[in-house]
Amino acid sequence: MRKTVHSLVLGSMGLCMAFGVESKSAQADTTLVSVRGLTLQGGLDIGGSAFFVPHANFGAGSYAPQKNGAYQRHKNPVYGEFYGKPMLTGQWALGHGFTVIGRASAIGATTLGNGDAEEVSQTSGTPRSIYLEEANLGVEMPVKLFGNPNKLTILGGRQAFAVDDGFLIGKGTYSAGNRGAWWYAPRFAFSGPGVIKLEGNPVRADVFMLESNSDNDIDTGYDRPKTKFVGFDVSWFVNRPGGHGENTYADRAAFVTLTYFHVREADTSSHYDYSARGDREGMNVASLSWGGTLFPIKQLGISKNFTFYGDFVSEQNSHAGNGYKSVEAYGMFLEPGYRFSMLPWQPSLFYRYTRYSGARNPEGSVKRSYDTFFLYDGKRYTYGGYWPGEIVGMYLAPLSNLEVQQIDLTATPPVHLLNAQDSLKLGLHYYDLSLLYATGAGLKPHTGRHISDELDFSAEYTLNATTSAALAGGVAFSGPAGKALARSGVPQGYALPDLGHHAGIIEAYFFKHF
Protein backbone atom coordinates (compact mmCIF):
# COMPACT_ATOMS: atom_id res chain seq x y z
CA MET A 1 0.00 0.00 0.00
CA ARG A 2 1.49 3.34 -1.04
CA LYS A 3 1.66 5.94 1.75
CA THR A 4 0.63 9.36 0.48
CA VAL A 5 1.50 12.94 1.33
CA HIS A 6 0.30 12.92 4.92
CA SER A 7 2.51 9.96 5.64
CA LEU A 8 5.41 12.35 5.13
CA VAL A 9 4.43 15.73 6.52
CA LEU A 10 2.41 17.59 9.09
CA GLY A 11 0.10 20.52 8.84
CA SER A 12 -3.22 22.25 8.34
CA MET A 13 -4.19 24.82 5.76
CA GLY A 14 -5.70 28.28 5.94
CA LEU A 15 -5.71 28.29 9.73
CA CYS A 16 -1.93 28.40 9.71
CA MET A 17 -1.92 31.47 7.50
CA ALA A 18 -3.89 33.64 9.88
CA PHE A 19 -3.14 32.15 13.27
CA GLY A 20 0.42 30.83 13.50
CA VAL A 21 2.40 30.05 16.60
CA GLU A 22 3.58 33.60 17.12
CA SER A 23 0.18 35.22 16.64
CA LYS A 24 -1.11 33.82 19.91
CA SER A 25 0.74 36.53 21.80
CA ALA A 26 -1.30 39.16 19.96
CA GLN A 27 -4.62 37.73 21.13
CA ALA A 28 -6.26 39.15 24.22
CA ASP A 29 -6.50 36.56 27.00
CA THR A 30 -8.54 37.00 30.17
CA THR A 31 -6.54 38.01 33.25
CA LEU A 32 -7.36 35.63 36.11
CA VAL A 33 -4.81 36.79 38.70
CA SER A 34 -2.71 39.95 38.91
CA VAL A 35 -0.95 40.53 42.21
CA ARG A 36 2.60 41.53 43.25
CA GLY A 37 4.13 40.99 39.84
CA LEU A 38 2.35 37.68 39.26
CA THR A 39 -0.06 37.52 36.32
CA LEU A 40 -2.09 34.50 35.25
CA GLN A 41 -4.14 34.60 32.06
CA GLY A 42 -6.55 32.12 30.52
CA GLY A 43 -7.78 31.66 26.98
CA LEU A 44 -9.67 29.27 24.74
CA ASP A 45 -9.30 28.49 21.03
CA ILE A 46 -12.04 26.71 19.11
CA GLY A 47 -12.09 25.79 15.45
CA GLY A 48 -14.16 23.76 13.05
CA SER A 49 -14.06 22.68 9.42
CA ALA A 50 -16.28 20.89 6.89
CA PHE A 51 -15.43 19.18 3.58
CA PHE A 52 -17.09 17.70 0.52
CA VAL A 53 -14.63 15.94 -1.83
CA PRO A 54 -16.44 14.81 -5.00
CA HIS A 55 -14.73 12.20 -7.16
CA ALA A 56 -11.96 11.91 -4.58
CA ASN A 57 -8.54 10.85 -5.89
CA PHE A 58 -9.83 11.04 -9.47
CA GLY A 59 -12.50 8.43 -8.76
CA ALA A 60 -10.44 5.98 -6.74
CA GLY A 61 -12.26 7.27 -3.66
CA SER A 62 -11.26 7.03 -0.02
CA TYR A 63 -11.14 3.74 1.87
CA ALA A 64 -12.12 3.81 5.54
CA PRO A 65 -10.58 0.99 7.64
CA GLN A 66 -13.15 -1.08 9.56
CA LYS A 67 -12.69 -2.92 12.85
CA ASN A 68 -12.86 -6.29 11.06
CA GLY A 69 -9.88 -5.37 8.88
CA ALA A 70 -11.92 -4.60 5.77
CA TYR A 71 -12.35 -1.21 4.07
CA GLN A 72 -15.43 0.82 3.19
CA ARG A 73 -15.05 2.91 0.05
CA HIS A 74 -16.42 6.46 -0.16
CA LYS A 75 -16.41 7.90 -3.67
CA ASN A 76 -17.42 11.40 -2.51
CA PRO A 77 -16.23 11.73 1.11
CA VAL A 78 -17.95 14.17 3.45
CA TYR A 79 -16.35 14.94 6.79
CA GLY A 80 -16.01 17.57 9.47
CA GLU A 81 -13.63 18.43 12.30
CA PHE A 82 -13.83 20.31 15.57
CA TYR A 83 -11.30 21.16 18.25
CA GLY A 84 -10.99 23.15 21.45
CA LYS A 85 -7.84 24.32 23.20
CA PRO A 86 -7.99 25.78 26.72
CA MET A 87 -4.73 27.44 27.78
CA LEU A 88 -3.17 29.05 30.84
CA THR A 89 -0.15 31.39 30.75
CA GLY A 90 1.74 32.92 33.64
CA GLN A 91 4.34 35.64 34.24
CA TRP A 92 6.09 36.49 37.50
CA ALA A 93 8.22 39.63 37.39
CA LEU A 94 11.15 39.27 39.78
CA GLY A 95 12.68 42.69 39.19
CA HIS A 96 15.81 43.85 37.36
CA GLY A 97 14.26 42.56 34.11
CA PHE A 98 14.01 38.93 35.25
CA THR A 99 10.66 37.20 34.61
CA VAL A 100 9.54 33.64 35.22
CA ILE A 101 7.22 32.46 32.43
CA GLY A 102 5.12 29.36 31.85
CA ARG A 103 2.33 27.99 29.71
CA ALA A 104 0.01 24.97 29.83
CA SER A 105 -2.67 23.86 27.38
CA ALA A 106 -4.63 20.84 26.22
CA ILE A 107 -6.45 19.99 23.00
CA GLY A 108 -9.67 18.07 22.55
CA ALA A 109 -10.52 17.17 18.95
CA THR A 110 -12.77 14.97 16.83
CA THR A 111 -13.35 14.04 13.19
CA LEU A 112 -16.90 13.36 12.01
CA GLY A 113 -18.42 11.75 8.94
CA ASN A 114 -16.39 9.65 6.52
CA GLY A 115 -13.02 10.86 7.75
CA ASP A 116 -10.32 12.56 5.69
CA ALA A 117 -10.22 11.87 1.94
CA GLU A 118 -6.82 10.20 1.65
CA GLU A 119 -7.12 6.95 -0.26
CA VAL A 120 -6.78 5.11 3.04
CA SER A 121 -8.40 7.47 5.51
CA GLN A 122 -6.45 8.16 8.70
CA THR A 123 -9.38 9.57 10.70
CA SER A 124 -12.44 7.47 9.87
CA GLY A 125 -14.66 5.99 12.56
CA THR A 126 -15.37 9.27 14.42
CA PRO A 127 -12.16 9.46 16.49
CA ARG A 128 -12.02 11.84 19.45
CA SER A 129 -9.35 12.63 21.99
CA ILE A 130 -8.16 14.97 24.74
CA TYR A 131 -4.40 15.25 25.21
CA LEU A 132 -1.85 17.59 26.74
CA GLU A 133 -0.40 20.12 24.29
CA GLU A 134 1.97 22.58 26.04
CA ALA A 135 3.53 22.40 29.49
CA ASN A 136 6.60 24.58 29.90
CA LEU A 137 8.41 26.78 32.39
CA GLY A 138 11.28 29.18 31.92
CA VAL A 139 12.89 32.53 32.62
CA GLU A 140 13.49 35.72 30.65
CA MET A 141 16.44 37.97 31.47
CA PRO A 142 18.19 41.01 29.95
CA VAL A 143 21.72 40.59 28.57
CA LYS A 144 24.13 42.88 26.75
CA LEU A 145 26.17 41.72 23.77
CA PHE A 146 28.57 44.04 21.97
CA GLY A 147 27.05 46.92 23.89
CA ASN A 148 23.50 46.25 22.64
CA PRO A 149 20.55 45.19 24.83
CA ASN A 150 19.19 41.69 24.18
CA LYS A 151 16.74 39.34 25.85
CA LEU A 152 17.71 35.80 26.78
CA THR A 153 14.93 33.25 27.28
CA ILE A 154 15.44 29.73 28.60
CA LEU A 155 12.27 27.65 28.21
CA GLY A 156 12.01 23.95 29.11
CA GLY A 157 9.26 21.43 28.51
CA ARG A 158 6.57 20.90 25.87
CA GLN A 159 6.34 23.95 23.63
CA ALA A 160 5.51 25.26 20.18
CA PHE A 161 8.65 26.16 18.25
CA ALA A 162 9.19 27.33 14.66
CA VAL A 163 12.10 28.55 12.58
CA ASP A 164 10.99 31.34 10.22
CA ASP A 165 7.59 30.25 8.87
CA GLY A 166 8.14 26.54 9.33
CA PHE A 167 9.32 25.09 6.01
CA LEU A 168 11.70 22.86 8.00
CA ILE A 169 10.73 23.17 11.68
CA GLY A 170 7.25 24.14 12.86
CA LYS A 171 5.13 21.19 14.05
CA GLY A 172 6.06 18.58 16.61
CA THR A 173 2.78 16.65 16.88
CA TYR A 174 0.90 14.88 14.08
CA SER A 175 -2.92 14.82 14.02
CA ALA A 176 -4.01 11.42 12.75
CA GLY A 177 -5.76 8.28 13.96
CA ASN A 178 -7.50 8.70 17.29
CA ARG A 179 -6.14 12.22 17.76
CA GLY A 180 -8.62 13.47 15.14
CA ALA A 181 -8.76 16.83 13.32
CA TRP A 182 -6.30 15.67 10.63
CA TRP A 183 -6.84 18.63 8.26
CA TYR A 184 -7.10 21.34 10.91
CA ALA A 185 -4.02 19.90 12.65
CA PRO A 186 -4.21 22.17 15.73
CA ARG A 187 -1.31 20.49 17.53
CA PHE A 188 2.14 22.05 17.36
CA ALA A 189 4.10 21.23 20.52
CA PHE A 190 7.46 19.50 20.69
CA SER A 191 8.61 17.80 23.86
CA GLY A 192 11.70 19.09 25.66
CA PRO A 193 14.31 19.43 27.00
CA GLY A 194 13.78 22.91 25.55
CA VAL A 195 15.00 26.04 23.79
CA ILE A 196 17.37 28.93 24.54
CA LYS A 197 16.46 32.11 22.66
CA LEU A 198 18.66 35.17 22.20
CA GLU A 199 16.46 37.98 20.93
CA GLY A 200 18.44 40.97 19.66
CA ASN A 201 18.18 43.44 16.80
CA PRO A 202 19.29 42.93 14.01
CA VAL A 203 20.51 39.44 15.01
CA ARG A 204 18.57 36.77 16.88
CA ALA A 205 19.29 33.07 17.51
CA ASP A 206 17.93 29.86 19.04
CA VAL A 207 19.66 26.80 20.43
CA PHE A 208 17.27 23.86 20.74
CA MET A 209 17.13 20.28 21.98
CA LEU A 210 13.67 18.90 21.25
CA GLU A 211 11.78 15.80 20.19
CA SER A 212 8.60 15.16 18.25
CA ASN A 213 5.55 13.79 20.04
CA SER A 214 4.84 10.42 18.43
CA ASP A 215 2.51 7.67 19.63
CA ASN A 216 1.31 4.99 17.22
CA ASP A 217 -1.12 3.62 19.80
CA ILE A 218 -2.95 6.95 19.64
CA ASP A 219 -2.39 7.52 15.91
CA THR A 220 -3.26 3.90 15.00
CA GLY A 221 0.00 3.32 13.15
CA TYR A 222 0.02 6.54 11.11
CA ASP A 223 2.35 8.62 13.30
CA ARG A 224 5.79 9.93 12.31
CA PRO A 225 9.04 8.55 13.73
CA LYS A 226 9.76 9.78 17.24
CA THR A 227 12.71 12.08 16.57
CA LYS A 228 15.13 13.62 19.06
CA PHE A 229 17.23 16.40 17.58
CA VAL A 230 19.60 19.17 18.63
CA GLY A 231 20.64 22.27 16.71
CA PHE A 232 20.60 26.01 16.28
CA ASP A 233 19.37 28.80 14.03
CA VAL A 234 20.64 32.35 13.66
CA SER A 235 18.90 35.17 11.77
CA TRP A 236 19.85 38.60 10.54
CA PHE A 237 16.74 40.71 9.96
CA VAL A 238 15.38 44.17 9.26
CA ASN A 239 12.37 45.26 11.29
CA ARG A 240 9.17 46.67 9.89
CA PRO A 241 8.38 50.12 11.37
CA GLY A 242 7.45 49.60 15.00
CA GLY A 243 7.94 45.85 14.69
CA HIS A 244 9.56 43.26 16.96
CA GLY A 245 11.30 40.95 14.51
CA GLU A 246 13.41 39.49 17.29
CA ASN A 247 10.41 37.45 18.45
CA THR A 248 7.74 37.90 15.75
CA TYR A 249 8.39 36.51 12.28
CA ALA A 250 5.68 38.64 10.63
CA ASP A 251 7.47 41.83 11.73
CA ARG A 252 10.60 41.09 9.67
CA ALA A 253 10.73 43.22 6.54
CA ALA A 254 13.71 41.15 5.37
CA PHE A 255 15.72 38.27 6.85
CA VAL A 256 18.35 35.62 6.22
CA THR A 257 18.45 32.53 8.46
CA LEU A 258 20.96 29.71 8.81
CA THR A 259 19.66 26.54 10.52
CA TYR A 260 21.37 23.27 11.42
CA PHE A 261 20.27 20.25 13.43
CA HIS A 262 21.45 16.70 14.07
CA VAL A 263 19.08 13.80 14.76
CA ARG A 264 20.35 12.17 17.94
CA GLU A 265 17.82 9.37 17.97
CA ALA A 266 14.81 8.32 15.88
CA ASP A 267 12.36 5.44 15.93
CA THR A 268 13.20 2.88 13.25
CA SER A 269 10.64 0.24 14.23
CA SER A 270 8.44 -1.73 11.85
CA HIS A 271 5.92 1.13 11.92
CA TYR A 272 8.18 3.02 9.53
CA ASP A 273 9.41 0.27 7.21
CA TYR A 274 7.08 1.55 4.46
CA SER A 275 8.77 4.94 4.54
CA ALA A 276 10.00 6.73 1.42
CA ARG A 277 12.87 7.95 3.60
CA GLY A 278 16.04 6.47 4.94
CA ASP A 279 16.29 6.29 8.71
CA ARG A 280 16.35 9.69 10.40
CA GLU A 281 18.77 8.63 13.11
CA GLY A 282 22.16 10.25 12.52
CA MET A 283 20.79 12.70 9.91
CA ASN A 284 22.49 16.09 9.55
CA VAL A 285 20.19 18.80 8.22
CA ALA A 286 21.20 22.31 7.16
CA SER A 287 19.05 25.11 5.76
CA LEU A 288 19.60 28.58 4.33
CA SER A 289 16.38 30.61 4.12
CA TRP A 290 15.62 34.20 3.27
CA GLY A 291 12.68 36.47 2.61
CA GLY A 292 11.07 39.88 2.41
CA THR A 293 12.44 42.91 0.59
CA LEU A 294 16.09 41.97 0.46
CA PHE A 295 17.24 44.32 -2.32
CA PRO A 296 15.26 47.58 -2.05
CA ILE A 297 15.31 49.85 -5.12
CA LYS A 298 12.94 52.76 -4.53
CA GLN A 299 12.92 53.88 -8.17
CA LEU A 300 11.38 50.54 -9.19
CA GLY A 301 8.98 50.30 -6.27
CA ILE A 302 10.94 47.34 -4.95
CA SER A 303 11.42 48.98 -1.55
CA LYS A 304 7.91 48.06 -0.47
CA ASN A 305 6.18 46.04 -3.20
CA PHE A 306 8.62 43.36 -4.39
CA THR A 307 9.45 40.38 -2.18
CA PHE A 308 11.62 37.34 -2.66
CA TYR A 309 11.39 34.31 -0.35
CA GLY A 310 13.24 31.04 -0.54
CA ASP A 311 14.76 28.13 1.33
CA PHE A 312 17.25 25.42 0.52
CA VAL A 313 17.48 22.36 2.80
CA SER A 314 20.22 19.73 2.61
CA GLU A 315 19.87 16.31 4.30
CA GLN A 316 22.87 14.02 4.72
CA ASN A 317 23.23 10.73 6.57
CA SER A 318 26.13 8.29 6.20
CA HIS A 319 24.32 5.65 8.33
CA ALA A 320 20.92 5.55 6.64
CA GLY A 321 19.68 2.09 7.61
CA ASN A 322 16.62 0.42 6.04
CA GLY A 323 18.99 -1.16 3.52
CA TYR A 324 20.53 2.12 2.36
CA LYS A 325 24.18 3.16 2.65
CA SER A 326 23.49 6.88 2.86
CA VAL A 327 20.97 9.70 2.48
CA GLU A 328 21.65 12.57 0.08
CA ALA A 329 18.49 14.63 -0.30
CA TYR A 330 17.33 18.20 -0.62
CA GLY A 331 14.22 20.36 -0.66
CA MET A 332 13.87 23.95 -1.83
CA PHE A 333 11.56 26.70 -3.00
CA LEU A 334 12.00 30.08 -4.72
CA GLU A 335 9.22 32.64 -4.51
CA PRO A 336 9.30 36.10 -6.11
CA GLY A 337 6.20 38.20 -5.49
CA TYR A 338 4.79 41.68 -6.11
CA ARG A 339 2.00 43.69 -4.51
CA PHE A 340 0.31 46.22 -6.79
CA SER A 341 -0.28 48.81 -4.08
CA MET A 342 -1.21 51.48 -6.65
CA LEU A 343 -4.22 49.51 -7.93
CA PRO A 344 -7.72 49.10 -6.41
CA TRP A 345 -7.99 46.05 -4.15
CA GLN A 346 -4.15 46.03 -3.96
CA PRO A 347 -3.70 42.64 -5.65
CA SER A 348 -0.68 40.51 -4.76
CA LEU A 349 0.86 38.07 -7.20
CA PHE A 350 3.59 35.51 -6.62
CA TYR A 351 5.15 32.55 -8.38
CA ARG A 352 6.61 29.72 -6.29
CA TYR A 353 8.81 26.95 -7.60
CA THR A 354 9.20 24.03 -5.18
CA ARG A 355 11.31 20.92 -5.64
CA TYR A 356 11.71 17.90 -3.35
CA SER A 357 14.45 15.49 -4.36
CA GLY A 358 13.91 11.89 -5.37
CA ALA A 359 15.66 9.03 -7.13
CA ARG A 360 15.10 7.26 -10.43
CA ASN A 361 15.73 3.89 -8.79
CA PRO A 362 13.87 3.33 -5.50
CA GLU A 363 16.00 0.24 -4.87
CA GLY A 364 19.35 2.08 -5.11
CA SER A 365 21.85 2.19 -2.26
CA VAL A 366 21.57 5.99 -1.79
CA LYS A 367 18.26 7.33 -0.51
CA ARG A 368 17.48 10.60 -2.26
CA SER A 369 13.88 11.10 -1.16
CA TYR A 370 13.38 14.34 0.74
CA ASP A 371 12.11 14.11 4.33
CA THR A 372 9.93 17.10 5.25
CA PHE A 373 10.62 16.51 8.99
CA PHE A 374 8.50 19.08 10.92
CA LEU A 375 6.92 21.04 8.06
CA TYR A 376 4.43 23.68 9.10
CA ASP A 377 2.27 25.27 6.43
CA GLY A 378 3.61 28.75 6.94
CA LYS A 379 2.07 31.98 8.19
CA ARG A 380 2.45 34.42 5.39
CA TYR A 381 -0.10 35.72 2.94
CA THR A 382 -1.59 32.77 1.04
CA TYR A 383 -4.25 30.20 1.75
CA GLY A 384 -2.71 26.75 1.95
CA GLY A 385 0.83 27.69 2.89
CA TYR A 386 3.38 25.22 1.53
CA TRP A 387 0.73 22.65 0.70
CA PRO A 388 0.61 22.09 -3.11
CA GLY A 389 -3.16 22.35 -3.48
CA GLU A 390 -6.35 21.61 -1.59
CA ILE A 391 -7.11 18.43 -3.56
CA VAL A 392 -4.15 16.55 -5.04
CA GLY A 393 -1.43 17.99 -2.81
CA MET A 394 -3.59 17.37 0.22
CA TYR A 395 -4.83 13.84 -0.41
CA LEU A 396 -2.73 12.13 -3.08
CA ALA A 397 0.69 13.52 -4.06
CA PRO A 398 3.83 12.73 -2.01
CA LEU A 399 6.03 15.58 -0.78
CA SER A 400 9.11 13.88 -2.13
CA ASN A 401 10.29 13.23 -5.69
CA LEU A 402 8.06 16.17 -6.59
CA GLU A 403 8.17 19.42 -8.58
CA VAL A 404 5.53 22.10 -7.99
CA GLN A 405 4.87 25.27 -9.95
CA GLN A 406 2.41 27.56 -8.20
CA ILE A 407 0.86 30.90 -9.09
CA ASP A 408 -1.12 32.83 -6.49
CA LEU A 409 -3.24 35.95 -6.95
CA THR A 410 -4.95 37.53 -3.94
CA ALA A 411 -6.86 40.78 -3.53
CA THR A 412 -8.62 42.62 -0.71
CA PRO A 413 -11.78 44.41 -1.86
CA PRO A 414 -12.62 47.62 0.06
CA VAL A 415 -15.73 46.15 1.66
CA HIS A 416 -16.69 45.65 5.29
CA LEU A 417 -19.37 43.10 6.11
CA LEU A 418 -19.96 43.43 9.86
CA ASN A 419 -17.82 46.31 11.14
CA ALA A 420 -15.38 48.96 9.95
CA GLN A 421 -12.33 46.87 10.87
CA ASP A 422 -13.17 43.53 9.24
CA SER A 423 -11.66 42.40 5.95
CA LEU A 424 -12.29 39.97 3.11
CA LYS A 425 -9.45 38.51 1.05
CA LEU A 426 -10.12 36.70 -2.22
CA GLY A 427 -7.64 34.34 -3.83
CA LEU A 428 -6.98 32.27 -6.94
CA HIS A 429 -4.41 29.50 -6.53
CA TYR A 430 -3.00 27.43 -9.40
CA TYR A 431 -0.80 24.35 -8.96
CA ASP A 432 1.07 22.26 -11.53
CA LEU A 433 2.41 19.04 -9.94
CA SER A 434 4.85 16.59 -11.52
CA LEU A 435 7.02 13.75 -10.30
CA LEU A 436 10.73 14.11 -10.84
CA TYR A 437 10.99 10.42 -11.71
CA ALA A 438 7.99 8.15 -12.27
CA THR A 439 10.13 5.08 -11.55
CA GLY A 440 11.15 6.59 -8.20
CA ALA A 441 7.48 6.50 -7.18
CA GLY A 442 7.22 2.83 -8.11
CA LEU A 443 5.44 3.56 -11.40
CA LYS A 444 6.25 2.17 -14.84
CA PRO A 445 8.90 4.11 -16.80
CA HIS A 446 6.49 5.07 -19.60
CA THR A 447 3.88 6.50 -17.20
CA GLY A 448 4.87 10.14 -17.59
CA ARG A 449 5.76 12.72 -14.91
CA HIS A 450 2.68 14.97 -14.80
CA ILE A 451 0.42 14.46 -11.79
CA SER A 452 -2.21 17.20 -12.06
CA ASP A 453 -3.26 20.76 -12.69
CA GLU A 454 -5.40 22.36 -10.01
CA LEU A 455 -7.22 25.68 -9.64
CA ASP A 456 -8.64 26.72 -6.27
CA PHE A 457 -10.62 29.74 -5.15
CA SER A 458 -10.62 31.03 -1.57
CA ALA A 459 -12.48 33.69 0.37
CA GLU A 460 -11.00 34.49 3.79
CA TYR A 461 -12.95 36.66 6.20
CA THR A 462 -11.36 38.25 9.28
CA LEU A 463 -13.75 39.85 11.73
CA ASN A 464 -11.00 40.87 14.13
CA ALA A 465 -7.74 39.55 15.63
CA THR A 466 -9.58 36.68 17.33
CA THR A 467 -12.23 35.60 14.80
CA SER A 468 -11.92 34.36 11.22
CA ALA A 469 -13.57 32.08 8.69
CA ALA A 470 -12.90 30.88 5.15
CA LEU A 471 -14.64 29.19 2.25
CA ALA A 472 -12.76 27.50 -0.58
CA GLY A 473 -13.45 25.35 -3.60
CA GLY A 474 -11.52 23.93 -6.49
CA VAL A 475 -11.10 21.42 -9.26
CA ALA A 476 -8.10 19.31 -10.25
CA PHE A 477 -7.41 17.62 -13.59
CA SER A 478 -5.38 14.42 -13.68
CA GLY A 479 -2.20 13.72 -15.57
CA PRO A 480 -0.89 10.20 -16.27
CA ALA A 481 1.15 10.09 -13.05
CA GLY A 482 -1.85 11.27 -11.01
CA LYS A 483 -3.99 8.40 -12.24
CA ALA A 484 -1.16 5.94 -11.65
CA LEU A 485 -0.71 7.17 -8.08
CA ALA A 486 -4.46 6.80 -7.51
CA ARG A 487 -4.39 3.22 -8.82
CA SER A 488 -1.42 2.29 -6.65
CA GLY A 489 -3.18 3.58 -3.52
CA VAL A 490 -6.19 1.24 -3.76
CA PRO A 491 -5.91 -1.38 -0.96
CA GLN A 492 -4.72 -4.77 -2.10
CA GLY A 493 -7.53 -7.17 -3.00
CA TYR A 494 -10.07 -4.46 -3.91
CA ALA A 495 -11.29 -3.93 -7.45
CA LEU A 496 -9.86 -0.90 -9.22
CA PRO A 497 -12.63 1.71 -9.71
CA ASP A 498 -13.03 3.61 -12.96
CA LEU A 499 -10.74 6.62 -12.86
CA GLY A 500 -11.62 9.96 -14.42
CA HIS A 501 -9.94 13.21 -15.31
CA HIS A 502 -11.09 15.42 -12.47
CA ALA A 503 -11.60 15.71 -8.71
CA GLY A 504 -13.12 18.53 -6.68
CA ILE A 505 -13.46 20.05 -3.25
CA ILE A 506 -15.62 22.43 -1.25
CA GLU A 507 -14.35 23.30 2.22
CA ALA A 508 -15.02 25.77 5.00
CA TYR A 509 -13.51 26.54 8.38
CA PHE A 510 -13.83 28.92 11.30
CA PHE A 511 -11.59 29.97 14.17
CA LYS A 512 -12.37 31.82 17.41
CA HIS A 513 -10.15 32.80 20.33
CA PHE A 514 -11.74 33.72 23.67
Automatic annotation (TrEMBL):
Signal peptide: 1-18
Superkingdom of the organism of origin: Bacteria
Protein's UniProt keywords contain Signal: yes
Alphabetically ordered keywords of this record: Signal
Name of protein: Alginate export domain-containing protein
